[in-house]
Amino acid sequence: MIRAAFIAGLFVLVGCETNFVPRTLVDDYRVFGVVTEPPAAYPTSTVTLTVKDTGETGLTYDWTLCPVSIGALLNFACLDPALEHRFTTDGPELVVDFGPDGVNLLGTLIAWFSTQPGGDDACDADCMAMAMDRVLDVQFTVRTKRGDQTLFTTVRNVRVQAGAQELNTNPVIEFLGVDGDGEGGMARPGAELALRLEVESASLQSFTRANGQQDTEEGQVSWYATSGEFDATFTFGAVHENRLVLPADLAGDGVQVFVGLRDGRGGFTFAERVLPLAP
């Protein structure tokens, strides 16, 4: 069921990253996703968000937060522009304190709620936690820019939980190897490379669905490279194997391989390998 949700989520991902064309070949600047540590938090937690992209220099990153988004149907607009928080940070990493000494997430929502029709009655943090059913998906939007030109717009939700339930954590990549080698590996024209990614099994959590059903996360890997063609765009499970066929006219400095590992519940981890061109 997680796999089906992931495939459906791919269509949402296309909407989240408005310039994103789902393909394994990376021939231009690309944003692969945003790693959030942790991917789920409490209303007073601190989270770190990091854009994972092709690493082009000279870019700036414009970050905003919206505690209540309308969602994909209305282009991820904030329910009320007054709720938006714009950050001064312009780098690929953003550290956010949800507590009173930071963006004061619950305080902002309580103050906004009190100004709405029917919101005259006082609503404290416990009241707000009940109103949001103890779960709130806080939306972050990051616009990657080169000068005044926006290259990518990426949306990333962070689940904020008011209850004491266990928080989701990011899956862990234990091994990423090429032809059985976790460190080396060379790119040769026309070569067929065997890639293998192993997920730390303990990082795939068991959890309870809303209907009370018990389930376990399944690792889902997206594969990308700056040259060549993969057998599979996505793979699933704890061990992921794929084949990358390089072109016969391969030239330049070599090939970069990028992988994104998701757990189907908001957890995301990213890794990359550089395969230099064989002499």
Task: Please characterize this protein's 3D structure.
The protein has 279 residues and is mostly beta strands. The chain folds into two domains: 137 residues, Immunoglobulin-like; 112 residues, Immunoglobulin-like. 11% of the residues lie in helices and 42% in strands. The chain contains three helices and 20 strands. The chain has a five-stranded mixed sheet with strand order 2-10-9-4-7, with no helix packed on it. A four-stranded antiparallel sheet has the order 11-12-18-16, with no helix packed on it. Strand 19 and strand 20 form a beta hairpin. The longest helix is centred in the first third of the chain and has 15 residues. The radius of gyration is 21 Å and the shape is globular. The termini are far apart.
Which radius of gyration do the C-alpha atoms yield?
21 Å
CATH class of the largest domain: Mainly Beta
What is the third-level CATH name, the topology of the largest domain? Answer: Immunoglobulin-like
Instruction: Note the total helix count.
Output: 3
Q: Total number of β-strand segments?
A: 20
Domain count, please report it: 2
Structural class: mainly beta
Into which percentage range does the β-strand content fall? Answer: 35-45%
Estimate the mean pLDDT confidence.
86
- Low-confidence blocks of residues: 6-22
First-to-last CA distance: 46 Å
